[in-house]
């Protein structure tokens, strides 16, 4: 099932659809689990969906139609991050791995200056953590109590990345956790 990233225009033709998508669903593993139309509208106006650091896309598939939303962040850096939000109807069906593979291909084929592609999720988002590993990404950090949740608790934020050479060669370069500190 080929995945396509269809560029969207959040300040123009796609504004209403983006606001409707983001505010009509719950995203239980994101910082804002129930974003409001007002919050999304303000974020669009502030450039959070399209500026020098952000590019936004619809995730489309011939087989399943519109799967959700994908945003690249920190584009002025050589290691962009992403925000992935699948439509509720498409969650739990194994599609996230296909989307992440396609996103990784997109980044490394269209952005020659990028050496690392990064993502983060909450410690309790076990499904996404498995997707990262299945797609050849490596856990690089575990930020204890780094992710605030709606009930006031602080969960860990877990960071993953994939290196261009690992994507190109089909390898996985592990993190050396206990490297000598030198002296």
UniProtKB/TrEMBL annotation:
Residues 3-165 form the N-acetyltransferase domain. The keyword Transmembrane does not apply. It comes from the Bacteria. Gene3D superfamilies: 3.40.630.30. GO terms for molecular function: protein N-terminal-serine acetyltransferase activity; protein-N-terminal-alanine acetyltransferase activity. One of its GO terms (cellular component) is cytoplasm. SUPFAM superfamilies: Acyl-CoA N-acyltransferases (Nat). InterPro entries: Acyl_CoA_acyltransferase, GNAT_dom, Ribosomal_N-acetyltransferase. Keywords: Transferase. PROSITE patterns: GNAT. This is Acetyltransferase.
């Amino acid at each position: 099932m080929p995945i396509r990233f269809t560029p969207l225009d959040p300040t123009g033709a796609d504004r209403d659809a983006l606001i409707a998508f983001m505010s009509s669903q719950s995203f239980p593993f994101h910082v804002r689990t129930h974003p409001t139309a007002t919050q999304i509208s303000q974020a669009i106006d502030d450039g959070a969906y399209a500026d020098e650091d952000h590019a936004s896309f619809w995730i489309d598939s011939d087989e399943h139609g519109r799967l959700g939303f994908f945003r690249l962040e920190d584009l002025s850096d050589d290691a962009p991050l992403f925000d992935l939000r699948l439509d509720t109807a498409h969650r739990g069906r194994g599609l996230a791995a296909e989307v992440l593979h396609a996103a990784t291909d997109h980044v490394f084929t269209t952005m020659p200056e990028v050496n690392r592609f990064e993502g983060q999720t909450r410690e309790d988002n076990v499904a996404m953590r498995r997707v990262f590993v299945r797609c050849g990404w490596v856990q690089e950090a575990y930020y204890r109590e780094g992710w605030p949740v709606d009930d006031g608790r602080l969960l860990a934020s877990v960071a993953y990345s994939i290196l261009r050479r690992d994507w190109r060669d089909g390898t996985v370069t592990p993190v050396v956790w206990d490297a000598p500190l030198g002296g």
